């Protein structure tokens, strides 16, 4: 009985091990990285079982390069977003150093937007530390269109979790809506963004393929939801 209790306590301790993470944009040819998310505590990760454990998740960059990046003449398809997880800050920092031997640049970290976002929690299923948090941020909604924005997000959320497929998973999710007023309504077309909070635009007039010119602003707004609450930032 005592052995069982000790084993249960040990298992509980393992599950409660803090997880640390950082996120970078890795330039595989240059072997440098741009810091996207500073090193800090994050949601618990079941793959991290000891202070020395690390693992990473990688996603190829798909959004367009800026003009400044194009001028660097870096080969297309050689940039990868990498999030490193670990059981301690030291373990994450060591792994990051091996991924970015030529250094980590902080140029992607900028000041928060001047206009703070108005944030509402549309679905509250629990602590973000053990939930999947989706943050919707609408572009091209002016100050007078704030009510319309929150109505749109409520309708979108209802549509996402209606039906047998996803309704059962709703208790695992938190859903947030963040409104930053845009000077102009709508988003840009023909490759030209309007004066909006996140600078979204389409290459032509087609509905698919929407790009942003202000990813740093989006990251800052998403972070305003609080610790561990920016798992899936979504610009609409």
From TrEMBL:
It comes from Aphanomyces stellatus. The keyword Signal applies. GO terms for molecular function: metallopeptidase activity. Gene3D superfamilies: Collagenase (Catalytic Domain) (3.40.390.10). It comes from the Eukaryota. Residues 1-16 form the signal peptide. This is Alkaline phosphatase. InterPro entries: MetalloPept_cat_dom_sf (IPR024079), Peptidase_M64_IgA (IPR019026). It holds the Pfam family Peptidase_M64. Keywords: Signal.
């Amino acid at each position: 009985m005592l052995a069982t209790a000790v084993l249960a306590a040990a298992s509980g301790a393992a599950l409660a091990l803090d997880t640390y993470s950082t996120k970078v944009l890795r330039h595989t040819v240059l072997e440098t990285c741009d810091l996207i998310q500073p090193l800090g505590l994050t949601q618990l990760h079941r793959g991290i079982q000891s202070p020395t454990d690390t693992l990473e998740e990688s996603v190829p960059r798909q959004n367009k390069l800026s003009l400044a990046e194009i001028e660097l003449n870096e080969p297309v398809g050689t940039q990868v977003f990498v999030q490193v997880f670990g059981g301690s800050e030291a373990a994450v920092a060591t792994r990051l150093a091996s991924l970015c031997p030529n250094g980590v640049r902080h140029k992607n970290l900028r000041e928060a937007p001047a206009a703070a976002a108005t944030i509402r929690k549309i679905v509250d299923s629990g602590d973000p530390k053990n939930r999947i948090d989706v943050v919707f941020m609408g572009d091209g909604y002016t100050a007078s269109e704030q009510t319309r924005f929150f109505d749109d997000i409520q309708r979108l959320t209802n549509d996402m979790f209606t039906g047998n497929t996803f309704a059962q998973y709703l208790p695992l999710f938190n859903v947030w809506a963040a409104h930053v007023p845009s000077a102009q309504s709508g988003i840009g077309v023909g490759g030209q963004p309007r004066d909006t909070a996140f600078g979204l635009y389409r290459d032509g007039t087609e509905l698919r393929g929407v790009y942003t010119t202000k990813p740093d602003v989006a990251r800052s707004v998403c972070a305003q939801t609080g610790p561990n609450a920016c798992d899936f930032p979504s610009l609409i």
